[in-house]
Amino acid sequence: MKIWTRLTKGHIKSRLLIGLSIISILFVFVTQLQFLNPFVSSWDQVDFSLAVHRFDLMAMQPHFPGYPFFILGGKFIHLFVANLSEALTVFNILFYASTIFPIYKVCRVFLSRSYSSLTTAIIYSSSYCLIMVNQPMSEGSALSAFWWYVWSLLFALKTKNTKAILFPLALLSLMLGIRLSYFPFSIGILFLYYWKLKHGGLSIKQLIYYSCWGVFFQAIWITALVISEGSLIGFIKLSLAFTSGHFNDWGGSIETSHISFVKRLIIFIWNNIFWTGMASKYFMIASIYLICFIVVLSRIFVKQRDHSPFMTLLYLMFISYFGWALLGQNIDKARHALPLVSLLILFLCIQLFKNRITLLILTLSGFLLGLQVYHDVILIREQATESPAVYKLNDYVESMGQSVILYTWEETRVLQYLNAPYTHKRIETYQLFQIDSKYYENSTVLLTDKVVKGFISQGVPLKGKIEKVKTFQSNKLFEPVYHDITLYKWVGK
């Protein structure tokens, strides 16, 4: 009787966990579709949106390397959704929804059905991931392709038939064709080769054969880009021109390119991965994750755990991308750490739910899921209804009702997309500003704070030459660089 009672209680708890997980995922999914983000608030978002209308690398629609599979997905959705940016966002949302399957399958390697469902819901509802998915940016689709790629590696590892290797090779091409910066995850293919060679089932001849297939899959989207550019020489020149300008600051901006390695590491781990990526800058979520980490650490010291080859593979991919994102990406933008955030939540849940699950762990995980869903709704609604700072800037300058010239940095790309009725220009040097502003002596000369900071960094004294007009703000989670824009009026000579 006692055994039957325990089985019944366990069955009910399992059903409740699965039901709670499904309801949470469905609720988040419906919220995403209900509150579609209508705004285009950054240079990259403009590039992607315009590319849906006309793909042209030379015109920065989008910028190199083209993100062809992401734009292709946006073009397909555009058949049903008229707005360019919303077409990309809907594609992100639908693609991300499909990851429920691969995430659940990956979890099932380590966990029971009920806790695999709970882990899937926690990963899926991660607030910062959803913010990125609900933007017309490639990160949402890249993260989705990443999870399918991870599952395909698992499938190939478990399957004796070597033809299964074609699956992850094809999905690697899809992922890199969406976001090339995910190339460090290619180490998963190398590990797969190593494992198959070591444990039989794959010969050197077959390895060369499948490697040729891998090259072919990558050549599909690269060849398409070359054709779109007109010639191989033109494509190479364009790629060199872009990369020489895009990566010359060692993955950083003006503010972060000269900081020490230790400070860069702290910013990347604490701010980008944990505070922004996992907690979405919400104290309650951060507190629960910290408690969970403490619980996991206490268990690690008590009992040593064995690792499956698949877990080793996940660790390898995490470490590889961690090094690249830390050193080769702009740490001003936490979105570059997105796959690390998802993997870290997976690692945490596996350690929490793999063995004996206490009431504390069950309560914390349920509370975490509820908090994330609650925070998701707030953020998704805010993202869809609150105008970005650059939109507020545009509305204010337009309402001034006088002849103006606005000097900006990257904001001008968004202003072009919005068809701003006043003159605006991107300016980077004070010397050029002095020459150009002479043509607008009868106009009010305005500058954004990024321009002002640029002049100051060039050693230009601006005291008495500018007056602060107004500051425009929006949520930093949505736009980390241009969430706070201050407008200045030029009064100096």
* Mean pLDDT value: 91
- 3D shape: globular
Biggest sheet, spatial arrangement of strands: 2-1-3-5-4
The main sheet comes to: 5 strands, mixed
- What is the CA-atom radius of gyration, in angstroms? 25 Å
Q: What order do the helices and strands follow?
A: HHHHHHHHHHHHHHHHHHEHEHEHEE
DSSP strand tally: 5
In terms of structural class, how would the helical and strand content be classed?
mainly alpha
pLDDT < 50 runs, ≥5 residues? 247-255
Q: Please report the distance between the alpha carbons of the first and last residues.
A: 91 Å
- The helical percent reads 55-70%
What count of helical segments does DSSP give?
A: 21
Strand residue percentage: 5-15%
Topology record:
Blueprint: H1 2-34, H2 43-53, H3 68-78, H4 84-98, H5 100-108, H6 113-124, H7 127-133, H8 138-158, H9 166-178, H10 187-198, H11 204-229, H12 232-246, H13 261-278, H14 283-302, H15 309-328, H16 338-353, H17 359-385, H18 389-399, E1 404-408, H19 411-417, E2 423-426, H20 430-437, E3 444-448, H21 449-457, E4 466-473, E5 484-490
Parallel strand pairs: 1-2, 1-3
Antiparallel strand pairs: 3-5, 4-5
Helix pairs in contact: 1-6, 1-17, 2-3, 2-4, 3-4, 3-9, 4-8, 5-6, 5-8, 6-16, 7-8, 7-17, 8-9, 8-10, 9-11, 10-15, 13-16, 14-17, 15-16
